[in-house]
Design goal:
The complex is a heterotrimer. Chain A has 13 helices and no strands. Chain A is mainly α. Chain A is globular, with a radius of gyration of 24 Å. Classes of the chains: A mainly alpha, B mainly alpha, C alpha/beta. Chains A and B meet through α2, α5, α6, α7 and α8 of A and α2, α4, α5, α6 and α8 of B.
């Protein structure tokens, strides 16, 4: 079944009664081609002064702190205290970056990358079949399970930190990267399943029927129909989970202890609380370094981001 | 087993959902149940917990910081929601335009999202130093001549709000940008024919078309508001005094600075109740549980 | 497997898991990790850029000469360290040797039965190598639980000599009225008289610790620490707090001290850049300034003195407050007790270790090292610190280390309110009294 037929069926199915004409079903290859007839905003001809002014104001608010981080990280320490915070650095030095990298920061970055990748993989592996079952199976047990999951949607992970600590130590996983991955993945599951079920529900029923009439079993339906059409949802879940895992603070803090298993967030926090005052330029260099992996990922995956982000959340 | 996995009707069996449900039960539901148990124990982290009956729960009534932390959490949630929505919605709509400059700017707007909370907090901790950071340069513009932002009991919470906003606006702006691009051009054309100006169009076309996104974005903000505490921990540690001691932080400090695990358990149960209530509310309002396509409108 | 069976099976499994976990929740706590007994001594210490290399060197020297016994040292950051220690002590995950702050902090661990009494393991000659006032911090109810392992850390008043000269101040303040006079002189010159990192309440606590000692003598805090009913209501507490409030109202700390952080070096920079005249800080201030503003120290612009006396006060002018020292203790359940004791006795008084401490600007708690200090670097300063500790009739431990963690947290919060004019001295007293 070609993408084009998919799109047509999707559109007829998706014209809501009250929602006005909406964008059609998820496109199989988001962001690559604009489908003919895809509605989008036509730019107005008159310049939009008010909008431009607001955007410029926000630009300043975003850019100034970012410039401050970058400039401070390239200063010598003495220069940082004497010069104004917004001045251009006297001599640009890279020594702060060396200081940070010498203190093992690269290992922390690597640990965070591992934790993030493992968490995303685990969440996707668990959430995809579960969402599929929730949407397609007729079992009441699954529906009940889904309701329990939804209760966990807004539950803050740190509320359970003490029992999680006990549980992890029972599993002999204390002070390993696994210790961080396990609970982080658990608390990302509700949102992941929610997004995936929403995406799968948007697949028109007649497509499912067309496949099962041909005698396809559940696995085949998943592989050839659901997976391609759920890709935006998977991207969304991936981004969500990755951001959460990358940002994780409380689980690494309580569940690991040795430097070998330190993640970036803890590595950054360590710059605080050093006796004798911290070295602001070095801290800012660490902040810049901690940003780089995600920036790289963002620049590579920017195309998928926009199409993926709205998947499963309604339009 | 075979029949559960392969069914003649091509539908997946219940077993497909079991791994995720079991996993969630073990690492989320069991700990939640244990937190309730913990709230009836006395434990300082050393040695073994002792059964304490309802002692921790009666203390809840005499905790001078509790009311304050609840109030602060609520305030932070509401203010953040209002401020962020007011910024993100118009900004997202603006970014949805197709001029080249907007695309470049959108990319830059997005950078704060790539920073972890710890990084954002450290950045602002340095920036807000009233003598060597940026605070004394910005302060006079905002009527705070000495740059005393995080040290002033009346300003500290607003400062935290501003930092949180700075961190999360990019994400929600993206949501609105993506949604605004989906608004059918015909609607604008029709509105133009009717003689509606830009502002009218925004009110009568864009806003109604974005209502689902408003719900989505608000849900995410609410859900997120219970979880950020690391940024407050690093930036103010709940101070000055208790001016920024929001409930999640109150729980964390009770458990890990005062080592009063039992009472921290009570506060954790409160957090769980708040989280569950919020979840139920979200599910009710958005109809997430409905088994039909959500694109049929709400 | 049909659906009903799946459901039952899953429910049973979930219930079993929940029960198993619940059974362990209120029972024992703690990780089931590597056990000891291997002749491998695990040592936990704090992260410190200057000290850690010295400690690493000592450990490798020890390992080279100790046969089968091998020590491994791990470093932690201050705040997480306390959390880790609290949850690891008494669990199989516990180290053999761990750093602590002595005094009240160590008492907590001793009371829970997690610390070994080293009374019989250490001979008298070893114990006598330390300054008695410092050794007292590791001694609880007459039993030795901790051994001093690095430099002493009394709190002193630091000042910028250039700023003093500009304001026409020739002598550092010796009495409280002198101090107030100097504050007014600096204010007249638009210089912040005292640098204070008010975003971190422990820096504010140093003022209360010293003032209470000068006004009411060390006994007042002894009563507070012992949890004597109404101890906070001692008039000396209110007097000390009123003096603090007076400083705040005079503008002694400027106006924006609440946003200044010690961790971010904000207060130290004010002093070294001449934007503030004085700073009350632990003795590590010298090493910190040496690292961040070397010229300021090397050109002799950094001054230091004892805390001023208070007229009609009951406390001895020679009394000091701060951290007597950091201590090494051995966990009660350590399977390598002999090796752990061996490690301590062979490292902390070892001549090259002591010399290295002195070289990085620390003042070891070892008796009779004046001459060594005089011939070492930074002699003026190290002999001053050593003299402070040696001649002090009383060395009160930092309150936030001496009190129970919950009380300490409360104290820091309430004190910050006094400094921010959110609470009066009376409100502080009644809040602490309710603890």
């Amino acid at each position: 079944m070609s993408a084009k037929t998919l799109a047509t069926t999707g559109r007829t199915a998706g014209t809501g009664s009250r929602g006005g004409p909406r964008a059609a079903a998820p496109r199989p290859r988001p962001g690559l081609v604009r489908r003919p007839g895809r509605p989008h905003r036509r730019p107005c001809r008159r310049p939009d002064w008010l909008g431009g002014l607001g955007a410029a104001a926000w630009l300043v608010i975003v850019a100034v702190p970012l410039y401050y981080v970058l400039a401070s990280s390239l200063r010598e320490k003495s220069d940082y205290l004497d010069a104004g915070p917004l001045s251009v650095p006297h001599h640009v030095v890279l020594s702060n970056y060396r200081t940070v990298l010498d203190s093992g920061f690269a290992d922390y970055l690597w640990n965070s990358v591992l934790v993030t990748a493992a968490t995303v993989a685990l969440v996707l592996a668990l959430a995809l079949p579960a969402a599929y079952a929730i949407v397609r199976s007729r079992s009441r047990f699954v529906t009940a399970g889904f309701s329990v999951m939804l209760m966990g949607l807004a539950i803050p992970a740190q509320a359970t930190i003490v029992p999680v600590y006990l549980l992890i130590t029972r599993l002999h996983a204390y002070d390993t990267l696994t210790a961080i991955v396990l609970p982080t993945a658990a608390f990302s599951l509700p949102m992941a399943i929610l997004v995936l079920t929403s995406t799968m529900r948007d697949i028109p029923g007649e497509l499912y029927e067309a496949m099962t009439v041909d005698g396809a079993n559940a696995t085949q339906v998943l592989r050839s129909l659901v997976l391609p059409l759920t890709r935006p949802g998977l991207v969304t879940v991936g981004i969500y989970t990755a951001l959460g895992a990358w940002n994780g603070f409380i689980f690494p803090l309580v569940l690991t202890q040795s430097e070998a298993h330190r993640t970036v967030t803890l590595g950054l926090w360590n710059y605080q609380g050093q006796q004798g005052g911290i070295d602001v330029p070095a801290t800012m260099a660490a902040v810049v370094l901690s940003l780089l992996p995600l920036l790289a990922a963002y620049l590579v995956g920017r195309r998928h981001l926009l199409s993926g982000l709205t998947a499963g959340f309604g339009k | 087993m075979n029949t559960a996995l392969r069914r003649s009707d091509g539908r997946p069996g219940a077993l497909w959902a079991v791994p995720a449900l079991l996993y969630f039960a073990l690492f989320a539901v069991v700990p939640m149940a244990l937190v309730v148990v913990l709230s009836f124990c006395r434990w300082n982290g050393l040695g073994s917990p002792h059964w304490a009956g309802t002692a921790n729960w009666t203390r809840l009534l005499h905790d001078p910081d509790l009311g304050q932390s609840l109030r602060l959490s609520l305030l932070l949630t509401v203010v953040n929601w209002a401020v962020q929505t007011l910024i993100c919605l118009p900004l997202g709509v603006w970014c949805a335009g197709h001029q080249r400059a907007r695309a470049v700017l959108s990319t830059l707007f997005f950078v704060p999202l790539l920073m972890s909370s710890a990084a954002v907090a450290l950045l602002f901790a340095a920036l807000l130093d009233p003598n060597f950071g940026l605070a004394h340069a910005i302060g006079p513009w905002l009527g705070v001549d000495d740059g005393n932002f995080i040290g002033d009991p009346h300003l500290a919470l607003w400062t935290v709000t501003a930092v949180v906003t700075w961190q999360f606006v990019p994400f929600h702006t993206l949501l609105y940008q993506a949604a605004a691009r989906q608004v059918p051009a015909q609607l604008y054309e029709a509105a133009t024919i009717d003689g509606a100006g830009r502002w009218r169009q925004f009110l009568s076309v864009t806003l109604p078309q974005l209502r689902h996104t408003v719900v989505t974005s608000s849900v995410l903000m609410l859900v997120g508001s219970l979880t950020y505490f690391d940024i407050v921990l690093i930036l103010t540690n709940g101070g000055p005094g208790t001016s920024t001691r929001i409930l999640p932080l109150h729980m964390y400090l009770t458990g890990f600075s005062s080592f009063d695990m039992g009472y921290a358990g009570v506060l954790a149960v409160l957090l769980l109740v708040a989280g569950t209530t919020l979840s139920l509310l979200v599910v009710r309002v958005t109809g997430f549980r409905r088994m039909t396509s959500r694109r049929e409108g709400l | 497997m049909n659906r009903a069976l799946t459901l039952r099976f899953t429910t049973a499994l979930a219930t079993a898991t929940a029960l198993a976990a619940t059974a362990t929740a209120c029972g024992s706590s703690g990780p089931g990790a590597s056990g000891g007994g291997s002749g491998k001594v695990t040592v936990w210490a704090l992260q410190d850029t200057a000290l850690n290399p010295v400690q690493r060197k000592t450990v490798s020297t020890f390992n080279a000469s100790s046969g089968d016994t091998k020590a491994a040292i791990q470093f932690f950051v201050n705040d997480p360290y306390k959390q880790k220690l609290q949850t690891a002590l008494g669990s199989p995950n516990a180290p053999d040797v761990f750093l602590n702050w002595g005094g009240g902090n160590l008492t907590t661990y001793v009371k829970s039965g997690n610390v070994a009494d080293l009374g019989t393991d250490l001979d008298a000659s070893f114990k006598n190598e330390f300054l008695p006032s410092v050794m007292a911090g590791g001694t609880i109810d007459g039993k030795t639980y901790g051994v001093p392992m690095e430099g002493v850390q009394p709190v002193a008043l630091f000042y910028n000599k250039d700023v003093f000269a500009k304001a026409g101040i020739t002598q550092p303040p010796a009495t409280w009225p002198d101090l107030l006079h100097d504050i007014d002189r600096m204010k007249a010159r638009h210089i912040t008289p005292i640098a204070l990192a008010g975003s971190q309440a422990w820096t504010e606590l140093m003022w209360l610790e010293y003032l209470l000692d000068r006004v009411g003598g060390p006994q007042v805090f002894v009563g507070i620490q012992a949890g004597k009913p109404g101890a906070w209501q001692d008039p000396a507490v209110t007097t000390a707090l009123t003096m603090i409030r007076d400083l705040v109202d005079r503008g002694a700390f400027g106006t924006n001290y609440g946003s200044v952080g010690q961790d971010s070096g904000g207060a130290d920079a004010l002093l070294s850049k001449g934007r503030a005249g004085m700073e009350l800080m632990g003795s590590w201030e010298y090493a910190g300034q040496l690292a961040t503003a070397p010229d300021f120290v090397k050109k002799g612009k950094l001054g230091w003195t004892t805390f001023p006396t208070v007229p009609n006060g009951k406390g001895d002018a020679k009394n000091i407050v701060g951290n007597p020292c950091n201590f090494f203790s051995v966990t009660a359940k350590s399977k390598n007790r002999a090796a752990a004791v061996d490690f301590i006795t062979k490292t902390v008084t070892e001549p090259s270790y002591v010399k290295n401490l002195i070289d990085i600007g620390q003042v070891p708690a070892i008796a009779g090292i004046e001459d060594q200090l005089k011939s070492g670097p930074n002699a003026d300063y190290t002999t001053f610190v050593y003299g402070l500790v040696e001649h002090a009739p009383n060395f009160t431990q930092s309150w936030d280390q001496a009190l129970a963690p919950a009380t300490a947290q409360k104290l820091l919060t309430e004190l910050q309110k006094v400094f921010n004019k959110q609470a009066s001295p009376q409100q502080f007293v009644s809040a602490m009294d309710a603890e």
